[in-house]
Amino acid sequence: MLEDIIYLMGGFIKMVESQLSSKYISKDRLETLVDGIFAIAMTLLVFDLPIPHFNNPLTNIAFQNSVYSLLPIFVSLVLSFILLAVFWSIHRRIFIQIRVTNSILLWITIIWLLFIVLVPFTSILDGMYGPEFILARVIFNVNMIGIALFLFLNCYYVSRSDLIYEKADRTKLKSSERSSLLFIVIAVIALLISFITAQWSLIYLLIIPLELLIDKL
Prior knowledge:
The protein is elongated and about 70 Å long. Helices cover 75% and strands 3% of the residues. A two-stranded antiparallel ribbon has the order 1-2. It has one domain (2-216). It is an all-alpha fold. α2 (27-47) runs antiparallel to α4, α4 (71-95) runs antiparallel to α6 and α4 (71-95) runs antiparallel to α8. It contains nine helices and two strands; from the N terminus they run αβαααβααααα.
């Protein structure tokens, strides 16, 4: 894991050096950074899943209760993993259409990745304290809004720049733009609902069918 982080940092430093010497940057370096950070963030989700510890003699009922107590954390983990997978899929769909990147797209992506690396933290926070405390739910949903917003900015900028291929599929870019807007809307609704009930996360289940529908339009 440490070697992967060092490798990613090295890739980022090389991107910054390239940025200083050229208007355009190879998209391969940025794609590698994105893929690496997503892989680490998705893996860290399961590392935050606690293992029950027992001080008293273990009984079947005590074990069951301990496992059941992990259910909110597990649900938050699964939800976060699925959302990260969908975010990565949309980003991949965008980057297929571009030939190079520049400093603007680079920093839009870097800020977007900042919200991505926060997901393991906000996910475990919501899983452990979300059922009882509104603030934990708010922090998770604000994290999701940040991811969706900068993903939209990513797509919006790319579709209106000279970074894309001449024969780029603009319908795919429009589809990605609509998907990003859908994420923003759903995340904002989830944020508002989280002030009322702890069952706010159910609304995120709408994302997958709606995203698949948008992709076919």
